[in-house]
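re the bet — no i am not wrong, look at it urself. input seq straight from the record:
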Amino acid sequence: MKRWTLIIAVWLAAAAAWSAEPPPEFVSDCERLSAGPHRLSGTPEYGCAADHVRARLQAMSPDAIIEQPFASAQVKVRRADLVLADGRVLALHPMRPNGVIPPVTPEAGVAGPVVHMGLGTAADFERAPVEGALVVLDYNCGQGWLRALRLGAKAVIFTRPREADARHPHHAESNVNLLRFYYDGPAADIPAGSTAVLHGSVVWAPVTGRNLFAFFQGTDPVFAQSKEEVVILAANLDSYGEVPWLSPGARGAANAAALLHLAGEVSRHRPRRHTLVAFFDQQARGHLGSSYFYRALEADKPDVTLAKREESYAYEVAFISEMRALLASASPLTARSKDARRRFLDRLADKAQQQAHIYKDKEFRLNDELLNYRKTYGAQLPENLRGRVGEIVSAKAAVIPVKQSWNELQRVVGRQKRQAGGEAVALTPEVQANLDLIIAQVRDDIEARARELAATDDFFKPFAEKSYRGNMNVTTLRTAMG
């Protein structure tokens, strides 16, 4: 049983309703929060929305405003376009990923005839075959896009409707690469019957999520169980949709605006219980923001206590300090260290192995292609493939020495693991360059972790430094909300 009891947890599922006209500040907040094309986590657009919320909360004079950053990921669009036969290039928007798999084409793109299928009804698909085609559909096609892909279409391009219908999903829950893109224009811009090439390069990139909190101290928070009680009022601040980069999230904006209105009421009329107003990020991707928040406050497990957290935090801070000192030495590879040297060498070994695998894989692919040609044609190699064979031979000549230099670095690091350090090591220029590269990568990893630790410390510091009625401290807050 939890040591402290959470009395109320309120999740805003819809905007507050008023019998008369909504308050002007609610309308203004809705407009500000939905002004951009989206509020995707980790983007400047989300940052603008979070800054607005923070400024509004600050004006309400809460006892504390806290930000909780956390590691997350967001899709990054490198390329999304359709190259038409006449040379025009139409900008596209990738649809939301299927599970975690975004729509991605080979680097050369996917080519095919353009076939228009309107709303994608069964009757529409009887008019013309779509196998191997790039199918253009109205966004409000319901399940029509699935029909197109089941019938062999290479890709589906949705076009702008008069009014978008949100009743039907345009994605699958399975982790599968189905090419789906959105063109923010009329279907007539994409000539039917012509051949076009679709390009899509979408990757996941690391970003920093950002939860926002305002804490309002209650007037008399101790009740029957002699424990201070906390009310949590929460809403999500980020947006998401079938076309993520064109999803201003009006409903979510209204929820957040309503929560700001409630926060103002709490500020003006303090209730007995403490109140924590929470705006969560990355709710659209598995409720990640609220998960980070509640995991940080978890205290009902015997091995997850504040003392253990603080012990782990202090150990990691000390380790980072020692690692920084090692990295700052003239020769990190051979530097002596009490605890950090072994873990530093483990990191170097992992990164060297990763690089070696990259070049081993390149060599394997080149050998495999060459072997296929020999098996297929023997000594009778066609003229049009002789140039390609020459390219393969040249590429292997370039790849093999690089692979060998990474293999040598793995051997060097392995020998260092069996030594105490302090002895100079002679390296070839190629191996030294490899070493410098992965040392820089380790340094970046350490600094990134240091920033995460600092952010974690900053999140709880406002509570730890305040004294509340009933001796409420950081332990109380962690357990009461857990």
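see?? Residues 1-17, 463-482 have pLDDT under 50 and may be disordered. told u. also DSSP finds eleven helices and eleven strands in the chain. so pay up
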